[in-house]
Amino acid sequence: KLDWSRENFKCFRIHIMAGMEKLRVAVVGAGAAGLCAARHFLARQDLFAPPVLFELTKDVGGTWVYEERVGHYDNGLPIHSSMYRDLRTNIPKEVMSFPDFPFAKHLPSFVPHTEVRKYLEQYCDHFNIREHIRFGTTVDAVDPVKVKTGWKGLAWDITSSDSVDRSKSIKERFDVVMVCNGHFYDPYIPAIPGLGKFKGMLMHSHEYRSAEPFADKSVLVLGAGLSGLDIAMELSDVNAKVILSHGQKPLTCPMPQGVEQAPPVSKVLEDGIVEFQDGKRAEPEVFMLCTGYNFVYPFLNEQVGVQVKEHLVYPLYKFLLPPAYPSLFIVGICRAICPFPHFHIQSKFAISVLDGSFALPSREEMEKDIEMDMAARRARGVATRHILKLDSEQWAYNDHLAHLGGFQPLPRYWSNLYESNKVFRARDMLNYKTYNYNVVNETEWVVKNLQGQQ
Ligand code: FAD
């Protein structure tokens, strides 16, 4: 049994300082999260060897690498990116960026996806990450192993293969694994009775690229999350007749032309007609599921005990590491967050765990902490499937990790501007992306000027 007591961590730290071998870090994925993790490990070469990033595609940027095709790459792997052609960000660049690397000054607040990809390329080069990436390499297995040396007797065997010729495979040993494989690529298909009987075109937003193919068509968009709303607006621009079906309270902000709201779909009838929860029916030509994505870790050994149930990845201490295997970190599973700054905080926290600046509690204490946190959320009426949805709680979470890890928290204007943007989006989804906050960097300025824009 591994002993993760405070004393042991202290010893480990002293060990490292005394000249033990540097820890070898593997990063799965070179999207925003993987790049961010690598940037912070590279800054700590006193303790860590340069990380190895495994990236199954030929590019950095993950979901920001727009791919015209849908389905599969030439090598048979499923297309990773869920980007659509005309997407502009829904978070202003002033707070979407990593806190230590702003977007270019000349850009507007809400940038096209191509600019985010460029930004990630620049981040990668600025922090000299590229030379550590193994492109075209898929991680197939992450297996824990007990060892005599290394990080408290724990190491990881990573099996990776050439993304084209899967028979070319190697196994290597690492001390730490950062799992950064993304969470927006495996479509979640809700269990709607009779769905298979739908006679028109059934698709998921993962396969949506542009509005033109839907011009003048009747489209049922299921889900009014950010993608559902965005896609409904794009469809309205090409004169599609959109039914936006969702389970939230009816949206009161001005809706795009040709978009009407409906309650959730209850079933699809024998003749392919769709029935809603209020009993009304429709026969759209297209049924577009904007229903989100599954968490998937096909490479992770079951022994690690990480389970995915009802959109919850569990058990993870601070939504990040399994108590029984605390040298593995699953970055960015929280939802309704400001992703890049969140990755920054989580990566720095992971390092504070590994270098001992945060003395990790015992396995039992961590498990108890997780249970108490879940219980508190459930007592507040949070359903299991929404536990990872941090929303405005993300700021307290970020601050908490920074406090525990003893590093700089995010400047306050981050939460101010992000939260203000959320309010504007809810009030005016048709126009909020035309706002320009460009030089915002002080709390008072943000509040004053955002109010001025009402
Ligand atoms: P990804 O970007 O998905 O990167 C994961 C990487 O891991 C990929 O490169 C993939 O190829 C690689 N990988 C996966 N499995 C393996 C494996 N087995 N072996 C090797 N490599 C592997 N965020 C914002 O901040 N603002 C926005 O406006 C915004 N809009 C969005 C719009 C859409 C349509 C979507 C889908 C997401 C949006 N997001 C937005 C969220 C976005 O997902 C995050 O900003 C961020 O890019 C996620 O980064 P990631 O590194 O976690 O995942």
UniProtKB/TrEMBL annotation:
InterPro entries: FAD/NAD-bd_sf, Flavin_mOase, Flavin_mOase-like, FMO-like. GO terms for molecular function: flavin adenine dinucleotide binding; N,N-dimethylaniline monooxygenase activity; NADP binding. Its cofactor is FAD. Keywords: FAD, Flavoprotein, Monooxygenase, NADP, Oxidoreductase. Pfam families: FMO-like. Its EC number is 1.-.-.-. Belongs to the FMO family. This is Flavin-containing monooxygenase.
